[in-house]
Amino acid sequence: MNGAIGSLYPDRPDHPEDRSDTRRRRAAARLVEDPDDGAEAREFHWTREDFERIRTMIRERAGIHLHSGKQAMAYSRVARRLRETGHTSFHEYLNWLELQEDAEWQEFVNVLTTNLTAFFREPHHFDLFAQWLSRHPQGPWNVWSCAASTGEEPYSIAMAAQEVLGGHASFKVLASDIDSRVIARAQEGVYRSDHLKGLSEERLRRFFLRGTRTNSGLVRVRPELRQAVEFMHINLIDDDWPFKTPLDVVFCRNVMIYFDAPTQRRVLERLHRVIRPGGLLFVGHAEHFSDARDLFVLRGKTTYERL
Ligand SMILES: C[S@@+](CC[C@H](N)C(=O)[O-])C[C@H]1O[C@@H](n2cnc3c(N)ncnc32)[C@H](O)[C@@H]1O
């Protein structure tokens, strides 16, 4: 690992629990409980209309539904773009954004996504996945992590696969996300060591390299693991998913929770189209799709089989 690794991390927090983000959100929360209150303490003028515009824009672009309790979050996240683009009010920034090409829209989406994730999060999915691989040791393995965030999920899938199939198997997982910054970080495969708490010594040794000197406190996924993951930018609400062959397993976890019910239904119908009959769909712990019984049947805790 070289000395530049520290600079791979822009001051974008790992997730919304990040301290600086939380500090800003707390300050904003005090201010927007009543948008007409405390205007003098607010860095930027903020109105309900600004919030409604942000809400509509992010729903149309990413399917993300911000409920009214998310005002403070919207203020603090989008305020970052105002600072970075030199705008002095939300009104002015949002007018400007409407005239922009894709690059600024991507930044707007990036600041409004929530990227919390962890290695082997919801471990029962990886046990079931390992069992599925043991039953299909010859492949093909068409596996998709469709809201991969900073990479912990697809690397966990690849680790589980290498443990079952051995390091020489040609197993690949496709990892995608709408947020271009998290996908770039996933591709780098560099993490803080404390982010790997809970991984066994055996997994740490087999799959990670420890940083030394200026990189101490950081780890990098080993090239053999890195090569088992392909990265892409895919928006789940777009029509142009790139699949030509049916998928066997999809991890679609902790993303649909941000969509409203009609959007969830549309995404589930599309997932149904790309997963082969009998294929598996893993979803997040708070995601229940009992209304989609015509498409998927529950086969275990937050695990569905495609009908
Ligand atoms: C909370 S993280 C979940 C990460 C991982 N799947 C897990 O369960 O640990 C949600 C991810 O969904 C992504 N996301 C949100 N809207 C999306 C969309 N329309 N298309 C693809 N990814 C989206 C976000 O960028 C974020 O990285």
Describe the fold and architecture.
- The protein has helices at 19-32, 48-62, 71-85, 90-98, 102-112, 123-135, 152-165, 180-188, 201-207, 223-226, 261-274, and strands at residues 143-145, 173-177, 190-192, 208-210, 218-221, 229-233, 247-252, 275-283, 296-300, 303-306.
- With 307 residues, the protein is an alpha/beta fold.
- It is globular, with a radius of gyration of 21 Å.
- The site of S-adenosylmethionine has 24 residues, from loops.
CATH homologous superfamily classification of the largest domain: Vaccinia Virus protein VP39
Q: On the 0-100 scale, what is the average pLDDT? A: 90
Oligomer: single chain
Q: Strands of the largest sheet, in order across it?
A: 6-2-1-7-8-10-9
Structural class: alpha/beta
CATH topology of the largest domain: Rossmann fold
Tell me, briefly, the overall form: globular
CATH secondary-structure class of the largest domain:
Alpha Beta
Unreliable runs, pLDDT <50, ≥5 residues?
A: 1-20
Radius of gyration: 21 Å
Catalytic activity: L-glutamyl-[protein] + S-adenosyl-L-methionine = [protein]-L-glutamate 5-O-methyl ester + S-adenosyl-L-homocysteine
Function: Methylation of the membrane-bound methyl-accepting chemotaxis proteins (MCP) to form gamma-glutamyl methyl ester residues in MCP.
EC number: 2.1.1.80
GO molecular function, one term: protein-glutamate O-methyltransferase activity
